[in-house]
Amino acid sequence: MTNSAIIQFHNVTKQYDQDPPVLDRVSFEIERGKFYTLLGPSGCGKTTILRLIAGFTEATSGDIYFNGKKINHIPANKRQVNTVFQDYALFPHLNVFENVAFGLRIKKMKKSEIAAKVKEALSFVNLSGYEDREIKEMSGGQRQRVAIARAIVNEPEVILLDEPLSALDLKLRYQMQYELRELQRRLGITFIFVTHDQEEALAMSDEIFVINKGRIQQSGTPNDIYDEPINRFVADFIGESNIVKATMIEDFLVSFGGGNFECVDQGMNPNEPVEVVIRPEDLQITSFEDGMLQIEVHSQLFRGVHYEITGLDQEGNEWLVQSTKKATVGDKIGLQFEPEAIHVMRFNETEEDFDRRLDSYSEGVADGK
Amino acid sequence: MENKGTRNLYMIPYALWIILFVIAPIFLVLYYSFFDIEGNFSLVNYKNFFTPVYLQMTLSSFWYAFLITAISLLVAYPTAYLLTRTKHKQLWLLLIIVPSWINLLLKAYAFIGIFGAYGAANNFLEWIGIGSRQLLFTDFSFVFVSVYIFIPFMILPIFNALDNLNPSLLYAAKDLGASGWTTFRRVIFPLTIDGVKSGIQVVFIPALSLFMLTRLIAGNRVITLGTAIEQHFLVTQDWGMGSTIAVFLILIMFLFMGLTGFRKRGA
Ligand SMILES: Nc1ncnc2c1ncn2[C@@H]1O[C@H](COP(=O)(O)OP(=O)(O)O)[C@@H](O)[C@H]1O
Ligand SMILES: [Mg+2]
Fold first, then answer.
1. Which residue has the higher pLDDT, A176 or A363?
2. Which chain regions cross the lipid bilayer (chain B) (predicted)?
3. B174 touching A, CB under 8 A?
4. Which residue has a Cα nearest atom 26 of ligand 1?
């Protein structure tokens, strides 16, 4: 228990009726003042986690702590948390001012103080001067900001945001990504942000929890998760990747696609079957003879910045390459990559074992092994 | 242009219906109200309306209609709220609505049986030791039966309003610190007020002109404007006075619709 942890989940399970659990023994810690993202496909349990934190539903088993205090049975209206809902949930019978003031009025704050705070919150989200507007007169992006203002005005310790950008068009979405991140930095409040969009998660977060089927698959910084995915699900879900079956011959030597390659991974059993991830941007195109791996090109798309080339190697693995060089469909070309570009994943490795293994690499290097 | 023409064509049956059965009768009523009992044109009916007898009647009509509406609302709102929380809410709603399909007269007779000297209600009072008493022909039975009859009409619009309420608004209110009661007062009730208003309209206005029940259940102890109109047309044959009361009833209805129809905006 670090003392900067503001929220802790301890083996939290949530189950409806006899269905398989929606959340299955989920444990994690949220530290104060950071931007967290819960990332996962639709139905994986992201909203359920937020609802548990907000207090809209109770865990079937397990404990939830807030500032070190167990809050399993504290009702939602007594928690120091505010939510920005997916559909914004603005009160249609109240204007912008009254929506933002809702929480303050319940606290029986003085009128003048409410007016000042609402004004400040609205200016934080660039909506100064919109106080008297009705909700139905606001655009989608503006409603979004009202919802954010309504949450931050209460000065909660944690703000929960459930896919707040999913209803916006692409351009507005990018803009709001910047604004939200900026807002979090300025306020210094903990944000827990839910999305199923991996790009959004990578762009905005300090920490990402990748969730699938009610379990946290991996947690870490965007870089960690992108560069060192723990398993096929994470590798596949985050960014474009080539994932192929491989054999770990020995430490620092892995075999796939008909060749043996030097790599930086170690600590596995000799000849252990594994999977290898190589990101498409880490592959370079060379001539057939110079290639470490040979593929036959079967499609090519021009993407503006680069070409996106796909081909099959001699074992039938499909490879996706992003290259500024052009290839010709039907040609055989060579691929080159660095040992560092290869990331080896063991089957069914737990997050603890995975982290321990990765940590041992740096120690091993230091030992001059 | 042709589109507009056909649309007007479709309007004909409705327009005819309205003219024949709504507008024409209103004008007939208005016309009759200017004739005294001998058939001479005069304003005497209007003068009579402002005598204590009729003013008293108007007041008592209002009082009973108010009681019936208020009690219906008090019963209907929680019922509608509970209904929206049940699993098979449409089925439950149907069960509540079905009695309103039964003829009013049949229901009135059923209650005469229940409230009669040897009816089920008195048997029950006897059984719990309070002893039988006069139930039929009292204010209580009149209001009770009227409420029973009107309640489905009050529940339906309130149920619809509650059912249309976005549940995440309730979570939002809680999230912002509102207790159950505050959520009701500041979110649920304001957002269902239109349902409440339609409920009040469909109960209060007919309750103002109830007449059959006043005779069958209240034994003519309660004289409302509706009863008075009936008596003038069927018993005293004073169509002029009956029409005059009807004119006032119509005016009151429009006034009431206007008052409850206004939508409040903002906070
Ligand atoms: N009230 C409920 N009753 C039964 N199942 C539910 C309920 N709420 C959510 N679920 C189920 O829980 C799973 C996870 O839901 P949710 O947390 O909303 O996923 P996400 O937000 O990641 O898309 C889904 O399969 C959903 O069907
Ligand atoms: Mg969700």
1. A176
2. 12-34, 62-84, 91-120, 140-162, 199-219, 239-262
3. yes
4. A43
Residue A323 reports pLDDT greater than 60 = yes
Q: Find the ligand nearest to A211 CA.
A: 1
SS3 letters across chain B: CHHHHHHHHHHHHHHHHHHHHHHHHHHHHHHHCCECCCCCECCHHHHHHCCHHHHHHHHHHHHHHHHHHHHHHHHHHHHHHHHHHCCCHHHHHHHHHHHHHCCHHHHHHHHHHHHCCCCHHHHHHHHCCCCCCCCCCCHHHHHHHHHHHHHHHHHHHHHHHHHCCCHHHHHHHHHCCCCHHHHHHHHHHHHHHHHHHHHHHHHHHHHHCCCHHHHHCCCCCCCCHHHHHHHHHHCCCCHHHHHHHHHHHHHHHHHHHHHHHCCCCCC
Spell out the domain ranges in chain A. Answer: 5-228, 241-366
Q: What is the mean pLDDT of residues B157-173?
A: 95
In chain A, which residues have their Cβ closer than 8 Å to the Cβ of B171?
A: 54, 56, 76, 83, 85, 89
For the stretch B8-21, pLDDT in tens is 888 899 999 999 99
Instruction: Write down all domains in chain B, each with its CATH number in brackets.
Output: 54-259 (1.10.3720.10)
Neighbours of ion ligand 2 (CB under 5 A): A 47
CATH of range A241-366; options 2.40.50.140, 3.40.640.10, 3.40.50.300, 1.25.40.10: 2.40.50.140
According to CATH, the topology of domain A5-228 is Rossmann fold (3.40.50)
